[in-house]
Design goal:
The protein has about 210 residues and is α+β, with helices and mostly antiparallel strands. The protein folds into 2 domains: about 70 residues, no CATH class; about 110 residues, no CATH class. Helices cover about 35% and strands about 20% of the residues. Strands 5-9-8-7-6 form a 5-stranded antiparallel sheet. A 4-stranded antiparallel sheet has the order 1-2-3-4. Strand 3 and strand 4 form a beta hairpin.
């Protein structure tokens, strides 16, 4: 649901004004976006969004949630001048400048998935596939692992171990080192939150919402 609070509307309009002042024609390949006139098209997870000078829309013409709007705008604003292909995997807490957001990332991204899918491995796999996730073998012992292309240059990896007689269910979300070149730490944390919300069913009609 789109937030109507005045402060969120002001932030939204400020971001749009800043993006409208950019010339991203020469960054299309670097960011994996498409620029046609004043329209910028960006894939986000398994959807495509259009950024116009005065609004952001999904493929059905709806304004996305505030968090998604912020992530898309920051991706355009912070994009580097040259591509970065360092795909070394890192935990969120290992990124420089992540410290203020580590607890929030755990509480809004990793723990919700752990709680939602304890004993429900098949449901988690359904959710991962629904969001365009690709099964991956990361060389890590786990019950399930998937890679998601949140943005063309920002991938997030889910590693899940279900509960057993000794340990509770556990979800770890990893990023590639290059992600920090394309987004700040707050936006990377929000990507984890968006993934958790969608996996838990908020935007997935195939998975029942938890009580």
């Amino acid at each position: 649901m789109t937030s109507k609070a005045p402060v969120f509307e002001k932030i939204y309009q400020d971001y749009l004004a800043r993006v409208a002042g950019l010339d991203l024609t020469n960054k299309q390949d670097i960011l994996g976006i498409r620029v046609e006139g004043q329209t910028i098209t960006i894939p986000f997870f398994n959807e495509t969004f259009s950024v116009f000078p005065r609004k952001i829309e999904d493929h059905q013409g709806r304004r996305p949630p505030h968090s998604v709007c912020v992530i898309l705008c920051q991706y355009l604003l912070l994009g580097p001048e040259a591509p970065d292909e360092d795909r070394q995997l890192k935990t969120y807490r290992d990124f420089k400048d992540a410290a203020p957001y580590v607890q929030g990332f755990d509480n809004t991204a990793q723990k919700p998935v752990s709680r939602a899918f304890a004993g429900r491995l098949a449901a988690l796999e359904t959710g991962c596939r629904h969001l365009g996730g690709i099964p991956g073998d990361l060389g890590i012992s786990c019950d399930l692992s998937y890679m998601f292309e949140a943005l063309p240059r920002v991938r997030i990896y889910l590693i899940f171990n279900d509960a057993d007689e000794d340990f509770p269910a556990d979800c770890s979300l990893l990023f590639e080192k290059q992600a920090a070149r394309y987004l700040d730490m707050e936006c990377l944390a929000m990507i984890g939150m968006v993934l958790a919300e969608r996996l838990a069913g908020k935007d997935n009609p195939d998975i029942a919402m938890l009580a």
